[in-house]
Design goal:
By secondary structure, the protein is of the alpha/beta class. The protein has 10 helices and 12 strands. Helices cover about 35% and strands about 20% of the residues. The mean pLDDT is about 95.
């Protein structure tokens, strides 16, 4: 007799996606697979979570949840996304990786925080030149440019900079944040692309210059060739990163799709934000993929997804 499989979803204040995800799975009336909100009443080291699959929508903001998910993964839960990789990943590394796997990205540099991190002093930075080689940095990136945190998302602390003076002023406002300075890609088309399970891709027209609630109302009507080109980029990025659930943002300049932001492992999936059609797609594909992972689950094994970068590293391979 096949053991029953349980899928949980871990979430915060969002409601439309988690509720619809659970309903989509349970509506299928599969005899051995059910879904529910994750419930945690205790976390003891080395003890299983009781879930075969957990979809993580909130641990990026709650360190306790990240620790819980790592313990669950060690005990065999298939966590979507891999909490160990998510803990290690950030946007500058992603851009560096893109340069090695042939994905066009804006010219980008990483900057030390304007203010000293906690428990450090000037003596902690004896290896850091002062001042930095700003002339070379500015010439490499060019202006206008964008400055944004190297970790985090949601369009928070993002600045458009027009010249060096503008940069110095705005960088002075960033406190202890480590920032990226990035070339502006003046685009004619822009897309936000869901990628689920490393195989399901949804390419959505997106206009980041619109107010947030109107960004999905764009319609760039890409050709079939452009759609296939973007789908291949999205799949390549996620294969190397190993994310089960992610979005990739692509800006098209002179016919070339540039990957702008592709570290979104808990992407917006709110019905009122992404629109009904996109919402229905992401709910159904996420449900289908979670069911696939539950069916493939092996008791006590490592059921996580590991990307090609990690696989190549452990095998001492080059790109």
């Amino acid at each position: 007799m096949t053991a029953s499989k349980k899928i949980g979803i871990l979430f915060g204040k969002e409601r439309s996606f988690p509720t619809a995800f659970i309903e989509a799975i349970n509506r299928k009336n599969l005899p051995d697979i059910t879904a529910e909100p994750v419930r945690i009443d205790k976390v003891m080291q080395g003890e299983p979570s009781g879930y075969d699959v957990i979809v993580d929508r909130i641990s990026q903001d709650v360190p306790f949840y990240r620790a819980y998910l790592k313990n669950a993964a060690l005990c065999g839960t298939a966590v979507i996304n891999n909490p160990f990789w998510w803990s290690a990943d950030e946007k500058f590394f992603n851009n560096c990786l893109a340069t090695k796997i042939g994905v066009p990205v804006p010219r980008t540099v990483i900057l030390p925080s304007r203010d000293l991190p906690p428990d450090t002093s000037d003596q902690s930075f004896m290896n850091l030149a002062y001042p930095l080689d700003w002339e070379t940095i500015f010439r490499y990136v060019g202006f206008p440019a964008y400055m944004k945190p190297f970790a985090g998302g949601g369009w928070k602390n993002v600045y458009k900079l027009h010249n060096a003076e503008d940069f110095y002023q705005k960088h002075g406002e960033t406190g202890q944040l480590v920032m990226l300075l990035q070339e502006e890609i003046v685009f004619t088309e822009y897309y936000r692309c869901y990628c689920i399970g490393g195989k399901y891709v949804r390419i959505m027209s997106y206009e980041p210059r619109n107010p947030h609630h109107l960004r999905y109302e764009a319609d760039f009507s890409p050709s079939q060739e452009r759609l296939l080109q973007m789908e291949e980029i999205v799949l390549r990025i996620n294969a190397w990163l190993g994310y089960d659930f992610n979005t990739v943002e692509l800006a098209v300049r002179d016919g070339v799709p540039y990957a702008i932001d592709f570290c979104n492992p808990a992407p917006d999936a709110e019905r009122t934000s992404v629109g009904e059609d996109n919402f229905n797609w992401v709910v159904e594909k996420a449900a289908d993929y979670a069911i696939e992972r539950a069916a493939a689950h092996q008791e006590g094994a490592d059921n996580l997804t590991w990307g090609e970068y990690i696989k190549h590293s452990t095998e001492h391979k080059r790109f």
